[in-house]
């Protein structure tokens, strides 16, 4: 009865190149997602940038002018009275 039992490991085929590529691609994707989630959760102190910027005004903000809206010539003015039914 003991000779009837076969305790050898089952034969598993060697993974193909595509299966290996898929496995390692999924591992890399999971690691990338963990890094992205940790980047959102863990704040990075920006003390070195905050000290340098207030003393120097940005050149883009100084030269920027507010835009004024000019109505287009082709557009009709809105009708002020309500339509009668």
Automatic annotation (TrEMBL):
Residues 75-85 have a biased composition (Basic residues). Residues 55-64 have a biased composition (Basic and acidic residues). Residues 50-85 are annotated as: Disordered. It is found in: Membrane. Keywords: Membrane, Transmembrane, Transmembrane helix. It is a single-pass membrane protein. GO terms for cellular component: membrane. Signal peptide: none annotated. The keyword Glycosyltransferase does not apply. It comes from the Eukaryota. The chain crosses the membrane at residues 24-44. Belongs to the UPF0239 family. This is Protein MANBAL. It comes from Callithrix jacchus (White-tufted-ear marmoset).
